[in-house]
Amino acid sequence: MAFDYLFSSGKIGNCYTKNRIVMSPMGENMGNVDGSLSEQAFAYYLERAKGGAGIIIPGVLSVDYPTGKTDGCQHRLDDPKFVVGWYRLANAIHHEGALLIPQIHHAGAQTNHITAEGRTPVCVSDTDEIEHAFIRYYRSYGPQHELTTEEIKELVQKFIQSAIYAQSAQCDGVEIHAAHGYLVSQFLSPDTNKRTDEYGGLLENRMRFLVEVIRGIRKACGPNFIIGARIPGKEWTKNGLTPEECLEIARTCEKEGCQFLDISGGTTVLSSTLMETQGYEQGDRVPLAEAIKKVVNIPVFTVGNLREPEFCNKVIKDEKADYICLGRSLLADPYWPKKAESGRTDEIRQCISCFDGCFANIWSFKPCGCAVNPNAGFERDFSENDRTESPKKVVIIGGGPAGMQAAVTAARLGHTPILIEKDDKLGGQLNIACVPPRKYPIKYETENLKKALKRYNVDVRLGLEATPEIIQDFGADAVIAATGSLPAVPPIKGVENTVQSWDILSGKAALPKDQNVIMIGGGVVACETAHMIAKEGKCKVTILEMLPTIANGLEATHLGDLMAEFAELKVEAITNAKVLEIHPGEVTYSVGDEIKTIPCDTSVLATGQRSEGNQLIEALRAKGTRVITAGDVIRPRKIMDAVREGNFAAYQL
């Protein structure tokens, strides 16, 4: 068997697992508005069980509605009326040979009165001594109520009651969320716990809430119900838990009755300590699990940026952890486990760590999705097993992400796609998006789609520019136009004296070295190009942006990383700046009524994009050809939009 260690059976408590792969708990914001399990979420979790995960851990089930909510459509397990939905899911998951262990959760201070539906959020300590930036951010929404001792006891009972409901639903156990700065973590960390009663002070007291929850669940649910805890291996905050305190929390959890530990880390003070952005190496949190595994005798889970079966298998083999938690990797490809087990690793669609579907969607009140898996969140509507009843011949114009995905989906559905691309290679903007520092994971999507095209034997014609006559000669039943976008050139005097950012990223223009560079435009492409010029070209870079802020649309975690690097590299951004004139050695701009001129060796243009191919589309439609559009040809946006629309376009055939 390929990857023998990863696919060996395991044991947690009195339950056996078919392999060492866990669907990591992640908030999905897919609950019904009342917090009950939605059909969308049912299909989402079941698909990962069908894909071969041995344990499914649905994330952040609220034990205290609405005060304990962190997401608008968060699932609940604080009332018996929710048992029926989880009972249905438990039986479906068990049918696939997997365990179901929901994660029970309370947001504590990491919520606000809007999410809490008008209620005042509760906190462990309400004092200005707290330096935790994210909690200070939430406090800016309004006051928070510091829990009394009696209220703490009530919350302990709510966690216990949620576990009882999970057991009633025939779930195999629960995982207590005691990390990431939420309520239980707020008790544990000296950064957020300034109490002077029995729940504050020494670590023994700060652990009291968690200990009482573990003891209570064990007493209520008996010895055969699994109890696990997600705990931090490290907090990465100035006044947070020390490494030795994290080890002691692990020892205490085992002593009190936990049967597995899920080792995460970080807090929302710096989001990239919770979820690794594109600059992190694979498995960078494994050492946290390894350290805790040395001091306990129960199974230890490791999590975070785990992509490749070879790497994961070695982690188990080297006894650094007992189980591998896959979060975004299973979001990107639910069948990662089955593909790995059968030796089809080339078919695994790798996560690109963009966070646009998983993290940004939830922050913007939408359900979880994925930039590389267009079916993520839509498992009830789309399946890898879907097939068309009326096969068609379709020409797809454009070999970027939208066109490639359209061709792959069309072929899988049973159509006959012909993909034409005017360039001599596939990938479109993916080929330049992966060039700036930290962005290399984007190239995984180019490879994902190229391999899929080959696997489905799609007819790909490179170096062929589409015309109405060429398209007509193919005799297709329909056309999918995924012609993408090109850089926009604004009507600025002297704009011909600039270098296009795309040309620098593609290598058509030389990377400036040791120069004074002006970046005209401050969008995502502009900022990522500026980052590259400053870091790799060692240039002094100044960004001129018309809007009040730069990098609009960049996911918040990546934005934080970029701004930190800009500070280190001394990249300057001048906002509300309108460029008036560009000369070979200087750029003139205005901020309000003030006009300024700034010297430069090179000026680089990155002022957005414009859709390409509309004239061709109109000409085809004038001839009566059915044309479906996808991606930037509709309007320039992100990889996730292009991939999703390419998929949808194929379903419209």
Would you give an account of this structure?
It is a single chain. With 653 residues, the chain is of the alpha/beta class. It is 33% helix and 17% strand. Strand 22 (540-544), helix 20 (556-569) and strand 23 form a beta-alpha-beta unit. It is globular, with a radius of gyration of 26 Å. The two termini are 40 Å apart. 55% of the residues are buried.
Content-based structural category: alpha/beta
For this structure, the CATH topology of the largest domain is: TIM Barrel
Number of strands: 29
Major sheet summary line: 10 strands, parallel
Radius of gyration: 26 Å
Outline the low-pLDDT stretches: none
How far is the first residue's CA from the last residue's CA?
40 Å
Q: Which architecture of the largest domain does the CATH hierarchy give at level 2?
A: Alpha-Beta Barrel
Number of domains: 3
The level of helicity is 25-40%
- Principal-axis shape equals globular
SSE layout:
Elements: E1 10-12, E2 15-17, E3 21-23, H1 39-50, E4 55-56, E5 61-62, H2 83-95, E6 99-100, E7 103-105, E8 122-123, H3 133-139, E9 145-146, H4 149-168, E10 173-177, H5 183-188, H6 203-206, H7 208-221, E11 226-232, H8 243-256, E12 260-264, H9 286-293, E13 300-303, H10 309-317, E14 323-326, H11 328-332, H12 336-341, H13 360-363, E15 393-397, H14 401-413, E16 416-421, H15 430-433, H16 443-455, E17 459-462, H17 468-474, E18 478-481, E19 485-487, E20 499-500, H18 501-506, E21 516-520, H19 524-536, E22 540-544, H20 556-569, E23 572-574, E24 577-583, E25 586-591, E26 594-599, E27 602-605, E28 609-611, H21 614-622, E29 627-629, H22 639-651
Parallel strand pairs: 3-4, 3-14, 4-6, 5-7, 7-10, 8-9, 10-11, 11-12, 12-13, 13-14, 15-16, 15-18, 16-17, 18-29, 20-27, 21-22, 21-27, 22-23
Antiparallel strand pairs: 1-2, 19-28, 24-25, 25-26
